[in-house]
Amino acid sequence: MGKRHSKVKRPSKYGDTRSERPVCNDVQKLTTIHSDNVTCVDKVGPGISISGSADKTIVQYNWLENKVQQKWIGHDRDVTRVVYGSKVNGVFSASRDRTVYLWQCGGAQNTPIRKYQGHDLVVMGTTINPDNTLLCTGSRDNYIKLWDVETGICSLQRHISRNLITYVKWISHEESVAQTSEDKCLRIWDTRTLEESHVFPKKQYIQTCCDVSSDGNYCVTSSNGFDGQGCETTLWDLRQNRGVCEYKGHNQTTGCCLFLPSIPYQPAPLIATSSHDSTVKIWNRDTKECVCSLSLDGAGPLTSLTAYEDGSICCASFNSGIHLLCLMADASGQLTLTKKAQY
């Protein structure tokens, strides 16, 4: 694992949650694909992920075949977000170097085919509309911007003081984007005008991430915090513009929240969260119950999640690359979350 082995483990910093760990004796050690902290991960297709890292690279990896399919190098600083666009068969990568690049999947070219440049500080949010014609970005420079994917031209932009953007996510079936910020707000933007259509009440702590349900009805946001204060995930109803409930259980900052695809034998809607306390938790959306939890000892802060229709979940970490997890339900609906591989 290279330089990761040289890092001193400090389990007390993230709490001791080893009792939550399911027994799993068949964890595979796959090829290590990044040499530094993995900051973000997204899915391409069954068994294929894309990831970005503090090592400035973006990697497309097939974990079923243990094979790096493509590796792109071009950013001058850490990669902060990666998003796969199926319609353009390309990867959008945001970086601390203030740019977003578009890379072509499946071709021989390993240089970016387009550059989106205009932010003054680190780009923390990147999302695309369903037909991949529009790119929305958000930055710590307080700007949210809308770009034409094909031309790379910024068509609309808005600035709000103290709106240090942490995440953006396109809302399914809508011409709208959800956005979280260090000002503790969840904002909804109308992408036709890039005007605020709704601002939800402020939370107590910085909102670190957001995701939108596939039907476009709900949004989840996650919160920073420490020693169990803050650290919650909040469910918002986008139809009624109100908060619905909170999911509490992490001890440190919750860095990522995600609506999960449905899996066999489990009809209940599920939400996954990952935290700086090195745990991944699965929640029943409607009952607020934490239905299963997994501690990834020594992984350090967990930074990003992506999920597949077969129950596979990729979890990015600071200290130990990407963890491949498996969420399964038995015939009675009982859920288990296990670690299957690491790369």
Question: What do these coordinates show?
Answer:
The structure is a single chain. The chain folds into 2 domains: 38-202, 7 Propeller (Methylamine Dehydrogenase, Chain H); 208-343, Methylamine Dehydrogenase, Chain H. The protein contains 1 helix and 31 strands. It has one helix at residues 11-14, and strands at residues 28-29, 38-45, 48-53, 57-62, 67-73, 79-85, 90-95, 99-104, 114-117, 123-128, 134-139, 143-148, 154-159, 165-170, 176-181, 186-190, 195-199, 207-212, 218-223, 225-226, 229-230, 233-237, 242-247, 254-259, 270-275, 279-284, 290-295, 302-307, 312-317, 322-329, 335-342. A 5-stranded mixed β-sheet has the order 1-31-30-29-28, with no helix packed on it. A hairpin with a 2-residue loop joins strand 2 and strand 3 (48-53). It is globular and about 50 Å long. The termini are close together.
Give the CATH architecture of the largest domain. Answer: 7 Propeller
What does the oligomeric state look like here? single chain
CATH class descriptor name of the largest domain: Mainly Beta
Give the tally of β-strands.
31
Ranges with pLDDT <50 over ≥5 residues?
1-24
Overall average pLDDT: 92
The biggest beta sheet reads: 5 strands, mixed
Tell me the name of the CATH homologous superfamily of the largest domain.
YVTN repeat-like/Quinoprotein amine dehydrogenase
Straight-line distance between termini = 9 Å
Strand content: over 45%
Strand line-up of the largest beta sheet: 1-31-30-29-28
CATH topology of the largest domain: Methylamine Dehydrogenase, Chain H
* Number of domains as seen in the coordinates: 2
